[in-house]
Amino acid sequence: MIPLEVSGQDLTTATKLLMLASGVDTTSVVVSWMPPDPPNGIITEYLAQYRRTGASSYTSLPRNTELTRTITGLVLNTEYQIRVRAFTVVGAGPFVTLTYRTVGPPENVMATVLSPRRIRVTWEPPMTIVTITGYTVVYNAVELTDSGMVPMITNTSTDINGLEEFVTYQITVITEFGGTIGPSNVAVAIRTWSDVPSGPPNTIALVGTDPAMLSVTYSRPVRSERNGALTGYVIRYTRVDTGELQVMNVSGNDITPPAISGLVAYTNYSVEVAAVNINGTGLFSDPVSGLSGQDVPNAPRLLGTVSINSSSVT
Questions:
Q1: What DSSP state is assigned to residue 16?
Q2: Three-class DSSP category at 270
Q3: Residue of 16, 181, 185 lying closest to 93 (CA atoms)
Q4: Which residues contact 244 (CB under 8 A, 6 or more apart)?
Q5: 47 pairs with which residues across the strands?
């Protein structure tokens, strides 16, 4: 048998080495490659290294003949250069390099008010080769305890409904990768539009003060029902025995308006109060009844005279 002659080995040809990177989670990546073709000899080991783009030096991973390496502890939303070279007994071949970017938060997150109780949120996917399985949108009211989330959205927009009027919300979008939670964007703040007050003033109280006058006091609607800055109040008062209705407008945010005047003294009136903002008049309170102030009496009514005898009359 004629023995086979093995030619001397040469440096490997890295231009034929195919390398891929696959994200494991937000800060880890698996790098894999195919052997050089041709290998120009027996591959004794591979060297994989990585660095942040622009850094002066690389970090080396353990050398062996396996065709994959896992890189962990990467920084979010950062670009890295990863390179691999093969070795034979003769020496090292040239590097083949790829650029990999760890996943960052969703980009260009924007919120648009559609109505006093509805906001539309849009965003763009983060720069990553990791497979994104969905997004979760989280919203929190600044002034109130209203909060919630819209889970597992597969597209890049959603509408949030049922919000409170004229309230500032902070909105974040979180990327999900299977069971892994990625980073969220810096919260976007937006205020819903105002609307007419959805609730009436509270604790209506009536006191008959000066003659033929009625003092009215009340408290503002609860904050979540004001739906904007209050600009005034409307007071409706009705004389109970006749049903005569009159209206008094109160400008500003004063909850102790001037007393209602010009009433019939010591007469029962029913009063309702509504709050006003730039959008209009809200709901009226339940009616509260009270007596107007007393006044000096009128002259007694003369019924007539009846003769009893020649010296007295009634």
A1: G
A2: strand
A3: 16
A4: 238
A5: 85
In the sheet where 107-115 sits, what is the strand order? 107-115, 118-124, 157-161
* Ramachandran class of 152: left when φ > 0, alpha when ψ lies in -120 to 50, beta otherwise: left
Rg value, the chain, Cα: 41
What is the mean predicted confidence (pLDDT) over 1-29?
A: 48
**Phi and psi at residue 226, in whole multiples of 5°?**
-75, -35
Q: What percent of the chain has pLDDT over 70?
A: 86
Q: Which residues of 120-135 are buried (b: 16+ CB within 10 A; e: fewer)?
A: ebebeebebebebeeb
Amino acid at 107: E
Phi, psi (deg, nearest 5) at residue 112: -130, 130
Q: Nearest to residue 164, comparing CAs of 113, 220, 202, 200?
A: 113
Residue-level pLDDT at 212 = 84
Q: Which of 61-65, 144-148, 213-217, 302-306 has the lowest mean pLDDT?
A: 302-306
Q: DSSP for 170-226? A: EEEEEEEETTEEEEEPPPEEEEPPP-S-SS--EEEEEEE-SBT-EEEEEEPPPHHHH
- Is the pTM here over 0.85, yes or no? no
H helices within the chain, ranges in order? 223-226
Closest C-alpha to 285, from 276, 296, 293, 273: 273
Rounded-to-integer distance, Cα 212 and Cα 247, Å: 16
